[in-house]
Structure formats: C-alpha cells, structure tokens
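Morning F.,

Quick status update on the modeling queue. The single chain you submitted on Monday has been processed. Sequence for confirmation:
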Amino acid sequence: GSLPGTSAEVLDQELRDKISPGRITVDQWTEVITTAHELGIPTTSTVMFGFLETPIQLAKHLDLIRGIQQRTGGITEFVPLSFVHTEAPMFMKGLLDDVRPGPSGMDVIKMHAIARIMLNNWIPNIQASWVKEGPRMSQLLLTAGVNDLGGTLINESISTAAGAQHGQLMRPSEFRQMIRQAGRIPAERYTTYKTRRVFSDTDEELDPLDLVGDNVEEIFGSYKRLVKLDTFRFEHPNHSRGAKV
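Structure tokens below.
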C-alpha cells in the first residue's frame, strides 16, 4: 500500500495562509511525507493549480517535491490537479479576490510537461487526473510527459463535489482504447507501480466493469446527485442565507 500525498495544494506557506488558514502547514506536510518514507511507506505527490498561484510558487513546489524525493526516494508518482471552480466556495462566493476559474488547456499541458522535465530523473511516473481533465485532454497529456492515467474509479467524490463533469466511471476497455489511440501501449499496474500486465494490440479480454451498461447511476448511485441536495450542503454560519455579518 501507500499513503496519498494529497492536501499539498501548493507548498507555499503564504499562499496556503490565504486559501486554507489553519490547515496543515508546508512543514507539517513535509514531515508527514518524509516520516512515511522513513517507515518504508511510499507516498504519492500532488499539486493543485489554476487558481491563485504564481509560476514561481509552482516552481518552488516542484523543487520541494524533487528535494524530498532526492533524500528519501519514497514518492511513486506526481499528479498535477487542475482547480475545479464550478462549486468551489473561494470562487463561487468570492471569498478571495482574483481567483481564476481553473487553468487553460495550455496551462494544463505546460504543467504536466514541466513536471516531467523537473522530476524525470527522480519521479518516473507523472499521472493525469482524467476526473479533472476529461478523457480527451488526458489522452493528449500522454504526449506531454504523462505515463499514467490513474484508476477506473466509481463515484469519485472530491472533484465531483467541486463541480467536475467526469468521475463516475471509466471502464478498463475505454482506458485501453484511449491509450492505444495516443500511440501508447496499455498496461495495468499495482499501487506501487509494479506492472501487473501489459496488453497486446489484439487483447480484448473484458473486465467485469466493462460489462456495466449505460445505467451506471442506477447501479452505483450518483455522488453528483447527492451533493446537489441541500440536505448535504454545509453553509458557514457567516455566509448562510439571510445571515447578517
């Protein structure tokens, strides 16, 4: 198994104090990750981009991640995560000034490509989040430094809650087709990136998930529908309807 390197956002304390005051600090995040590595537990690593960060802050983030990997060697992959603004309070409610509505397509490509350049000798795997980027952009990113597309997932919750339009399910056969269309060879891996299986061009063996019909929401339910219900929405007391601040 491994430990997720999430909650990193951008590892710049000044920026973190703006977007998530009181949350885990840069030093604390670094301590958690390096301690896991010292205990023999590998971790992932991430960055969120396309909101308030500057190119310098992103460069420092990548440098910090690379420095950790140079010391410990415990990071299995790096995953750039586009900011999904649709339901994000800091964008929708104007909690912070100058928040961008996520990265442009070119920003997404550059982020993954630069990550490959900066981390290539140390972190061999750069993952595209198809939940955030969608199948077509993820396919394109396979030509811009990405060598991993993550998992099939069912009812992914975090990006969906923020308003992402993808994340219900990606069937294994759809993954393989997408990868082949990009001129790459599909392979299945374990969490630690040990290869489980490499698929040939003619291999069309079906996975149980491939047999799921188009009525996915009826079978697995829908997290997207769930978070649309007011019953499951939290309103900060200072920002609730009709509240006087």
